[in-house]
Write a structure and sequence with these properties.
80 residues; mainly alpha; 3 helices
């Protein structure tokens, strides 16, 4: 259980940092995309640029996966 908690904390920290960086760059985050869907329905898809799609469906999952790997390595380093 401790292992999952530590990995989860690292994923959360990486997600917060990634969202901050993405907001400063001007790409859409999942929060922005969900707000667009709520406000504009299916028209929200036309308001995204190619880089937004690449970030949301490729970049963000990869970044969170790296958060998992960092958390796992830290857990193994401290507890093994």
């Amino acid at each position: 259980m401790v292992k999952l908690y530590i990995i989860g904390i690292f994923i959360l920290l990486i997600a917060i940092i990634a969202n901050g960086i993405i907001a400063s760059i001007g790409l859409k985050s999942w929060y922005d995309f969900i707000n667009l869907l709520n406000n504009d329905g299916s028209k929200a898809f036309s308001k995204l640029q190619v880089l937004d799609y690449l970030w949301l469906f490729l970049g963000y999952p990869l970044v969170l996966g790296c958060g998992y790997l960092i958390g796992l390595k830290c857990y193994n380093w401290f507890f093994s």
